[in-house]
Amino acid sequence: MSFLSRLREDLDTARTHDPAARTDLEVALNYSGMHAIWLHRVSHRLWQTDRTRGAARTVSQLGRFLTGVEIHPGAQIGRRFFIDHGMGVVIGETAEIGDDVMLYQGVTLGGTSLAAVKRHPTIGDGVTVGAGAKVLGDIQIGAGSAVGANAVVVKDVPDDSVVTGIPGKARPRTPDKQEPLVDPATYIDPAMWI
C-alpha cells in the first residue's frame, strides 16, 4: 500500500469513528491520536534495524511529548487503527493490535512481567477498548469484542465478547449490543431546545 493510500485510509478511519470530525484537514491538523499513530509508524520502521533503535525510541518519546500518547516502537499495529481523544494511552513493546481497532483515552495495554518475553496483550480485529481500561499481560482479546470503560482485564477474552468490571468479566456480545443505542438518522439533540 502506498504512503498516500495509507494516509487516505487513516483519515477515512478517523472520520468514520468520530462523528465530530468534519474534514480531512481538521483531522490531519488537530487529532493527537492520529499524530501518535503516524509517529509510531515512523518509530516502528526504525525499530526494525538494530542500529536505528535509539532513533526509534527518540521518535517515540517525541510522539509522547507532542500527543500524550505513548506507543513503544516495538508494538505491532494493524490497519485502520484509531485512538479517540488519545491523552494517557500507553501501548507496551510486545503489544499486538489487529485491524479496525479503536482505543479511547486513558487505555493501557500493559505488561505484567519484567522478563524480556511477550508480556503485553494481543488485541484482535475489530475490538473497541473503552476509556480508562487496563488490559494487562500476555493475554488475547478476541476479535469483535468490546472492553468497557475502566475495566481491568487480566485473562483471555473470547471473540465477540463484552468485558466489564474489575477484574474484567466477559459475556457474549449479542447482535443487539453491537448496534448504536440511538439511530443517528432519527435522533434529535435535546440541546436544540435550549
From TrEMBL:
Where does this protein act, in terms of pathway? Answer: Amino-acid biosynthesis; L-cysteine biosynthesis; L-cysteine from L-serine: step 1/2
Please give the catalytic activity noted in the UniProt record: L-serine + acetyl-CoA = O-acetyl-L-serine + CoA
Q: By its UniProt entry, which InterPro entries does this protein fall under?
A: Hexapep, Hexapep_transf_CS, LbH_SAT, Ser_AcTrfase_N_sf, Ser_O-AcTrfase, Serine_acetyltransferase, Trimer_LpxA-like_sf
GO BP terms, alphabetized: cysteine biosynthetic process from serine
| Acyltransferase in keyword set | yes
Recorded GO molecular functions are:
serine O-acetyltransferase activity
Gene3D superfamilies named in the record: Hexapeptide repeat proteins, serine acetyltransferase, domain 1
| Coiled coil (UniProt feature) | none
Q: Which domain of life is it from?
A: Bacteria
This protein's UniProt keywords: Acyltransferase, Amino-acid biosynthesis, Cysteine biosynthesis, Repeat, Transferase
EC number annotated for this UniProt entry: 2.3.1.30
**What cellular-component terms does GO give this entry?**
cytoplasm
Q: Which NCBIfam families match?
A: cysE, EPS_EpsC
Name of the protein described by the UniProt record: Serine acetyltransferase
Q: Which organism is it from?
A: Kocuria subflava
Mind giving the lineage of the organism this protein is from?
Bacteria, Bacillati, Actinomycetota, Actinomycetes, Micrococcales
